[in-house]
Design brief:
Shape: globular
Radius of gyration: 19 Å
Number of helices: 11
Distance between the termini: 16 Å
Length: 313
């Protein structure tokens, strides 16, 4: 067992090259609706069960189906009211199961990035060839459905192999959402490409809030506001990133959505300081403007550890 996956260098927060987002903005804000498809009877994976309870799990299957039937539309209408675009974390099989949801996203000029094929088919145990097939399917399916070339990746159900980041870099993906080590983008240590670790979040993810911690909507909104305020304050010194990952089967429940909107109103009241962007736009800006500076700073601090992910050289 390796002590460290060596996916990125240790890079102390203080004293990094200053990031300024377009227009001199202090904080890049993006919002990531997870549009997912859970199979009722998925193929088994020896390393993880698709459902926490015994199969058939009618209750949890139907709970997640709420998002695709009711929740996404509610969330889209809410984001429309605040002129916010989503960056969709997409189980790409949804393009075939519910194309009308994809069409609604395309109409709104939302970005798509891959969240695997289904959220019930995990990466654990896949060979590089099998994982490449998942990427090929993701790229082709989303291009056919939307005309977009996807540039971001969030592994299905946050499951990985030692090859995942190298493969997405080889396939000209620009950013990964699978790491949670920072509040600023950071270069990842892949064999090829320029793959950015994009701040996503478990801390302000509605799955953690509602399904893990069991908090109420008011507490979630308060956490979002405080999270935003702190990142905006630190963004005066160097630009930060805040993402709100969402799942419509949770946040779009009737008793939760209106309270969640209060957080969006708070964030959107800081138009002068916040760059409202997509994940792809943030990754592209960082790659074009701060990639080389970041690597030079890591090298100058003497903290380069050598090798690439899962390979210490």
């Amino acid at each position: 067992m390796k002590a460290d996956p060596n996916l990125y260098d240790y890079w102390p927060y203080a004293g990094r090259p200053k990031i300024e987002w377009p227009g001199g903005k202090k904080l890049a804000f993006w919002i990531a609706p997870n549009i997912e498809f859970y199979e009722f009877m998925p193929p088994s994976n020896p390393q993880r069960s698709p459902w926490p309870n015994a199969i058939p799990n009618v209750q949890q299957y139907s709970q997640r189906d709420f998002g695709n039937r009711v929740g996404h539309l509610r969330l889209m209408e809410l984001l429309d009211r605040h002129n916010l675009r989503g960056s969709v974390s997409l189980n790409v099989a949804l393009c075939d199961h519910h194309p009308e949801i994809i069409e609604d996203c395309v109409k709104r000029d939302w970005e798509f990035f891959s969240h695997g094929i289904y959220n019930t088919r995990y990466s654990y145990g896949l060979s590089p060839e099998q994982e490449q097939a998942v990427l090929d399917d993701s790229i082709k399916t989303v291009e056919k459905a939307s005309g977009q070339r996807i540039r971001g990746y969030l592994a299905p159900a946050l499951t990985h192999t030692e090859d995942t980041l190298d493969l997405i870099a080889e396939n000209d993906f620009w950013y990964s959402c699978d790491l949670f080590q920072d509040d600023q983008p950071q270069p990842l240590k892949t064999k090829t490409g320029k793959l950015v670790s994009m701040p996503y979040s478990l801390e302000v993810n509605d799955v953690i809030t509602y399904s893990v911690n069991g908090w109420d909507p008011d507490r979630y909104t308060d956490i979002l506001k405080r999270h935003f305020d702190q990142l905006l304050l630190e963004g005066e010194k160097s630009g930060t990133v805040m993402c709100i990952p969402l799942h419509a089967y949770l946040v779009s429940q009737p008793n939760r959505l209106k309270v969640f909107e209060e957080a969006l109103k708070h964030i959107c009241s800081h138009q002068d300081d916040v760059w409202f962007a997509t994940g792809k736009e943030i990754a592209e800006y960082f790659r074009n403007n701060y990639w080389d500076q970041s690597l030079a700073d890591i090298k100058a601090r003497g903290v380069v550890s050598g090798g690439t992910g899962f390979n210490h050289g």
